[in-house]
Request: fold
Amino acid sequence: MMGPRSQALCGYARKVTLSPSRIGEQDIEELRDAGFSDREIVDANGIIAYYNYANRVASGLGVGVAKKNRVGNVATRYSIDAGRYRDLWGPLLRPLSLRLFDSLPLAQAGRVLDLGSGAGLLLDDLGRATSITSTVAVDCSVGMLELIPRGHQRAAMDAHRLGISSQSFDVAVLAFMLIHSADPPACLREVCRVLRPGGSVGVVTWGRDLISTVDEIVGAELDVHGAHRVTALSTYDVHDTPDKLAELLGAAGFTAVRSWAEGCDYWSDLPGFADARMSVGQFRLRLETLTGEARSLCIDTIHRRLAEAGVRRPAICSDIVLAVGTSPVSRGLHRQGSDCLDPRA
Amino acid sequence: MTWVAHAPGSDHLSPFMASQSLNPAAPPAHSALYEAIVVGDSPLSRTERELLAVAVSAVNTAHY
Reply:
C-alpha cells in the first residue's frame, strides 16, 4: 500500500501530466496538507516536468524502439513455440555448448549466470561442477523459462538491461543467444558489469557459412509458393568469425580474450527435422500465410526435395565460433547496477 | 538506436542523449538540467523522486 505522501505525489504527477490546465492553487494546498514543503513541491514539479520532457524526446525520436521491439518479438516468438523450440534445437545445441565448458574455470566458480538460457539445457551440466553454489538462468522469454525443471533459479530479463547488481557472478555463459541480441555490444557490456573483477565470460555462436539443407529447401519452396516474408529475429554477421567475436568482447571491456572456430555437422532424419523446423518461428509463420491448398503443395514439394537430397547431406553443416574472456580487475568508475531512470545510462 | 541520425563522435553518449546530438548544445544542457532537477540536492527522498519518474512515464505509457 502506498502511504499518503506517495499517493499525493502520484496524484499531482498524474494531473500535471494529463491535465496541466486544470491545476489550481487547491492542488498545492493539498500537497502542503500532506506535509510537503514548498521546496519539495518545487522539486517534485521539476521532476514531473523533466520526465514529461524526457518521455517526449524518447518517444518522438524513437529512442530504443528498435531494440525494445526486437527483445519483445524474440520473447513472444519463443514463448509461443517454447516446447517445440526446445525439442528441435536442444539435442543439437547442448553438445555444441558443452564444448565451451573445458575453456571456462567452472571448477573454481561459485555463482554462474546462464544468459539466454532458454529452457535450461545446460543447467544440469553446470550443476555437476562441484564448486558451483548457484546457477541463475536468465532469458527474455517467460515461456522458455517455464520449461526449466523445478529447483533451478530463473529470471525473465532483457539482456541489454539486466536487473542484476554489478560484480555479482564468477562466470557468465552465453550459448547461442548473441544472434538474438539487437545490440550485442550493449549486451556484452552488461555481462562485463555483472561479473566480478577477474570473472569469466564464455560465448558460443554460429559461424560463417552455416549451411542447412533443410533451411535452404524450406526457404526456397516458401518463396516459390508465395509465402510472405516475416521479420528475421536473428543476426549472424556481426560475430560469425573468431576475429569479429574477439573484437566485440574486447570493445565491451573484456581482457585475455581467446576465440576460435570448430566444425559442426549435424546429421538428422531430414524430413523429420524439416517438420520440426516448420513447426516453430519464422517458417511456421511463413507457412501460415499460405492457403490450405498451397500449403499442402508446398510441404509435399519440400518433402520430395528432402528425400532426393537424402542421406548424403547433413541437416546442418557449419562452424561454431567460441570465445572466452576475463572481466578487467581494475575498471575505474563503474555503474552500480543499471539505472533505468538515468538518461545517461 | 533512434529514428534520426547522430552527430559523428557521439558514440560515447547513451542512445537517449545521442538522439539530440545533431544540436551539439543539447546533450550537455540536458545533462545539466537532469543533474539540477533530478539528482541534485533535494528534501525529497530518492524513492520519492523515482516514484515521480515512474508515475509520469506510466501515465505517458512511455517505454523509455
The longest helix of chain B spans residues 26-39. Chain B touches chain A at residues 1-4, 13-17, 19-20, 30-31, 33-34, 37-38, 42-44, 48-57, 59-60, 62-64 (CB under 8 Å). Helices of chain B lie at 15-18, 26-39, 46-59. Chain B has a mean pLDDT of 88.
